[in-house]
Amino acid sequence: MNNLRKLAIPAALAVLFFIMAGCCQKCKPADGKKILANIGNYEMTVEDFKNEAALIAPYKYLPGDSAKVKEEFLDELITKKILLQEAQAQNFDKDKAFMKEIERYWEQALLKLLIKKKQKEFSADIVITEKDLKDEYGRMANKGVPVGPFERMAPEIRRDITRKREEEAFEKWMSDLRKKTKVNINRKELNDIKLE
Fold it and tell me: Is residue 88's pLDDT more than 50?
């Protein structure tokens, strides 16, 4: 009887734990974030959902707060997570080709973030005066480029000057980086490489 009691208490606690875990869809995890969905061993928070929606917003039309759109998007995310969990279960995440692909993506993402940051810095430093705009307008007219009235052309000229100055600032920054970075090239190895 005592053995039965010893087994019954842990069993009851385990059942209680599983019941509570099943009801925990509306619970908050320890960090205080609201759980939107449990997908296998993954807890998708409301914040995760909003972040994913923000990532696709520039590429996909997401009208307002439509319940149907949210349901469809959530379904896409659930499918994605299920497929990712299956890929992990089949150890694709440990494959050398996969790791190389992740490394390439990581490098591209880093470069994109750095360039975006520098572009904002360069843009903040650019000052374009009315004289700059009129000088460029005059150069265009002198080259025989068909130009409209200055007031209509000024915004386009401003964008062109801004873009050109950003490119010049980026090239100078890149040149400065190259000058201060020590680079050694093994020319023999480079010459021995056969590209196919």
Answer: yes
CA distances from 60 to 26, 54, 73 (A): 29, 10, 11
pTM of the full predicted structure?
A: 0.52
- Overall number of domains in the chain: 2
The span from the CA of 75 to the CA of 17, in Å, is 28
**Beta bridge partner(s), residue 35:** 45
Contact between 128 and 161 under an 8 Å Cβ cutoff? The reply is yes
Where in the sequence is the domain holding 86, given as residue range(s)?
Answer: 2-94
Instruction: Write out the two tokens for 102.
Output: 């992740």
What confidence tens digit (pLDDT) does each residue in 113-130 have? 999 999 999 999 999 999
Residue 157, burial from CB neighbour count under 10 angstroms (0-12, 13-18, 19+):
buried
